[in-house]
Amino acid sequence: MDKKLYSLFCLLYFALPSCGSNFDDSPQNRTSSTNRIIVSSDNIKKGKELFTKCVGCHGFNGEKHALGKSAIIQGQEKEGTIVQLTEYSAGFLNQYGMGGLMQGQVRNFSDSDIRDVASYIESLLAQ
User: Fold this and answer.
1) CB–CB of 85/109 below 8 Å?
2) Distance CA 93, CA 100 (A)
3) Among 106, 118, 103, which residue's Cα sits nearest to residue 44?
4) Which stretch of 17-26, 38-47, 62-71, 79-88 has the lowest confidence by average pLDDT?
5) What is the crossing angle of helices 111-123 and 41-51, to 10°?
6) Domains detected in the chain
7) 25-42 b/e with 16+ CB inside 10 Å = b?
8) What span, in angstroms and rounded, lies between the C-alpha atoms of 38 and 61?
9) Which residues, in sequence order, are bridge partners of residue 30?
10) pTM of the entire structure?
11) What is the mean pLDDT of residues 48-76?
């Protein structure tokens, strides 16, 4: 599968509410025409625990340019982070020449782990 098709697949798989494991289709969680993905504090808490392996390069609050090369990830949008981490894990992404390092960091993350870390990173904007 080529990189663009894989990226599209990842974005659709993780971003569409009907595909996410945190999708709550109960009536009290519906808006008039849009379903919401519910992110619980447990997701963010688990993401924070998983993020500890990222702190050395990205800083405690995602405020650093990793090894002076990467963009700051603090508050980065969840869906974009999910796509990036999934692509790093699969070895398809090599932003800033960090592909090998990042693949080693996230290779053993499950899809759920990736979603939780992405939720935590997005939550850093509010801190």
Assistant:
1) yes
2) 9
3) 118
4) 17-26
5) 100
6) 3-126 (1.10.760.10)
7) eeeeeeeeeeeebebeee
8) 23
9) 35
10) 0.70
11) 96
Q: For the chain, state the CA radius of gyration.
A: 15
pLDDT in tens, 14-47: 554 444 444 343 333 333 334 445 567 899 999 9
Is the dihedral angle over the CA atoms 106, 127, 63, 23 positive or is it negative? positive
Chain position carrying tokens 């969680």: 29
Tokens of 98: 């960090």
Average pLDDT over residues 61-86: 96
Cβ neighbours of residue 5 closer than 8 Å, sequence gap 6 or more: none
Contacts of 124 (CB under 8 A, 6+ apart): 61, 62, 73, 74, 75
Burial class (CB in 10 A: 0-12, 13-18, 19+), 127: exposed
At residue 3, the pLDDT reads 63
